[in-house]
Amino acid sequence: xxxxxxxxxxxxxxxxxxxxxxxxxxxxxxxxxxxxxxxxxxxxxxxxxxxxxxxxxxxxxxxxxxxxxxxxxxxxxxxxxxxxxxxxxxxxxxxxxxxxxxxxxxxxxxxxxxxxxxxxxxxxxxxxxxxxxxxxxxxxxxxxxxxxxxxxxxxxxxxxxxxxxxxxxxxxxxxxxxxxxxxxxxxxxxxxxxxxxxxxxxxxxxxxxxxxxxxxxxxxxxxxxxxxxxxxxxxxxxxxxxxxxxxxxxxxxxxxxxxxxxxxxxxxxxxxxxxxxxxxxxxxxxxxxxxxxxxx
Amino acid sequence: xxxxxxxxxxxxxxxxxxxxxxxxxxxxxxxxxxxxxxxxxxxxxxxxxxxxxxxxxxxxxxxxxxxxxxxxxxxxxxxxxxxxxxxxxxxxxxxxxxxxxxxxxxxxxxxxxxxxxxxxxxxxxxxxxxxxxxxxxxxxxxxxxxxxxxxxxxxxxxxxxxxxxxxxxxxxxxxxxxxxxxxxxxxxxxxxxxxxxxxxxxxxxxxxxxxxxxxxxxxxxxxxxxxxxxxxxxxxxxxxxxxxxxxxxxxxxxxxxxxxxxxxxxxxxxxxxxxxxxxxxxxxxxxxxxxxxxxxxxxxxxxxxxxxxxxxxxxxxxxxxxxxxxxxxxxxxxxxxxxxxxxxxxxxxxxxxxxxxxxxxxxxxxxxxxxxxxxxxxxxxxxxxxxxxxxxxxxxxxxxxxxxxxxxxxxxxxxxxxxxxxxxxxxxxxxxxxxxxxxxxxxxxxxxxxxxxxxxxxxxxxxxxxxxxxxxxxxxxxxxxxxxxxxxxxxxxxxxxxxxxxxxxxxxxxxxxxxxxxxxxxxxxxxxxxxxxxxxxxxxxxxxxxxxxxxxxxxxxxxxxxxxxxxxxxxxxxxxxxxxxxxx
Lengths: 296, 584
Prior knowledge:
The structure holds two protein chains of two kinds.
Chain A lengths: L1 H5 L7 H4 L2 H17 L3 H17 L4 H24 L1 H4 L11 E6 L8 E5 H27 L4 H8 L4 H30 L9 H6 L2 H24 L19 H23 L5 H12 L4
Antiparallel strand pairs in A: 1-2
Helix pairs in contact in A: 3-7, 3-12, 4-7, 5-7, 7-13, 8-9, 9-11
Chain B lengths: L1 H6 L3 E12 L7 E9 L3 E5 L6 H8 L2 H4 L3 E9 L2 E2 L5 H4 L3 E4 L12 H11 L4 H14 L15 H13 L5 E5 L7 H18 L2 E5 L3 H4 L5 E6 L2 E6 L1 H5 L2 H6 L6 H11 L11 H12 L23 E11 L5 E12 L3 E5 L6 H8 L7 E6 L2 E2 L5 H5 L2 E4 L12 H11 L4 H14 L15 H13 L5 E5 L7 H16 L3 E5 L3 H7 L2 E6 L2 E6 L1 H4 L3 H7 L5 H8 L12 H11 L2
Parallel strand pairs in B: 3-8, 3-9, 6-7, 7-8, 13-18, 13-19, 16-17, 17-18
Antiparallel strand pairs in B: 1-2, 1-4, 4-5, 9-10, 11-12, 11-14, 14-15, 19-20
Helix pairs in contact in B: 5-6, 5-7, 6-7, 7-8, 12-13, 13-23, 16-17, 16-18
């Protein structure tokens, strides 16, 4: 279940102890560079750093692998898209030299094709784009799995969101395990009655979900009424403006040091990418061409 | 309202002729309820499901009339506040309401937040919240679970958490709506011990709605019995219990000790005190039996093994291990050498001991990680759930959650249609099963318009139409009153008598004792014993290990062993037939 991979893991690591605001900055400090730079070699460094924090947060690497597998279809789409439309989309950063063509993705068959001119440059660029996707997902996973849903309301309140929203978000997160349980039990109940998704006809397949979807919706509605009653019975709505919180967010020295380091890194990244124009895929392309002995 | 305010100093709760009709309903849910509860008094309310007990609890904290829609008549005052005038969030500061189903009242991500939620709403300073949360955690024995999701606790712990969330608000009045309905005996004990602590140390006013009178009555100062929206008996608990006919008519789960005393009264004995607990029951019988000699007989066994001589093995589990995806091991080598065709077998054990997991292995929902499950000699590993569905029907907990069709007829036809049974045959089965289970008159109406009890019957019927050789029913008695739970067992027994092998999972030991040929005792992912209920309920070692409590009548018999009372009495009927031969 996806929730197992990205859900909160109650541990006590360096990352878990950080203030949620620091973790949000941490997430930005690694996902923004992943967008600003597009050199696969540089991105490899960013990926390494994210994996390092992955390790610091004691997250099993198996989960990272699972994510990689889950992302494969999307990454393939990115790959194909970038290879096909490289020249049209990357006009601003096309290399000054002539692209080195490797061949066609779809060869000429009779009057059909050929399509998908694959160049070395497009491959390098596409692999950067795929990596970017992976890095952001991984960093998001570290953020979610080290931040307890119970820190969310306090964080949102600190970031000046209304109390109602903070409570709503926290309740929504809290309900996830219950919803999963509910959905699983209804699926199991109907499978026990011989139910299965039938037919290749998509319309029929959708219809065959009625016996599971209807009870799930009905149960969710009745449950939310009970939950609302339970919340009211615990005084929710007594004085929203003055509502206090058991969680107190306070930045300690380590948090401030982290903020300093992360901001510094972010500035270095932005300046290098947008002012100094470093971290471009072209430098790697140049390196590889030289290594392969292809003249530029 | 000058009169009221002076009265309110003595009474924490005053209900004056309160009626409530939910909007969209033509019948009032409660009618002309009048009650007065003194400060520090504990009122127990009992009665069959659908009697209006939950509705009454909602009036006490203002959910009615402020949260639910409908029409209210009469007046309710709690802690001197006129309920009509104050919002739920204000009433809740004075009245703590705990609901029956933990899944419907826990809503945050961690135990810590769950408990802090109330104090946070009342804008208490952080130090005070921490102090209260700390107290409530200790109180509910949940220290160490602060950061766990409430949903991942055991049933008993969940309900203790719900109670802790109210305790942290420090209300002056507690209203507990069937706080143990989903719990195993150990969880029930845990929760009632916690309630007792609040009652004894804080002298809080309490209203406890409960079916399990043997737990609740020892706490009660007064007892009210509700039926059909009305209070039909109210007063001193012992006086209310004297009204035998009423108790029997409503089929309430009265303690066995009380039931035995009633039997004596019917035979003309004059009783001064009605016994309620095991000790009271034992000393009552000791007095009655002193002087008489008890014949050296075995208690009459009214339901021995099916003597049909059928030794066909229906189910066999060989060293079955099961591991969940999260890595936790649910079963650690379950061995069940044989469950024979036509047997009625009970699975008992604590929550989390592996009963439900084993049940789901029987119909192939789960496949063993190691070992094998054989259904009529066929390994489930090689079969799909669908293939197995024709042999093994599994009725899940809360079975009415699975209903979806527009008519009961379609609901009953769903299973066999899935199995590819010809439509003509499907309809024949639906008619037959509906007749058998007395559902014919409902065939063409929506299952959602049925009462809770009928919905459950439809769910069972929809399993029976698949013509299973084995019927597995998971917790049919959970959240049911005694009458409904017993009706469910009768229904299953009917199918068993027609040859279906039946497996029932339940925490209700009285029903297990009365219906099962054999029981399988689960503990910590293993089967630690298989035997007749008589045998199992005498094995002190097993009972201690699994925290199971034998029926009250068995506990009474054990206390009277020195008088020669047989130790293997497990039902009230057995005790009465013994007494019948001894007492003049």
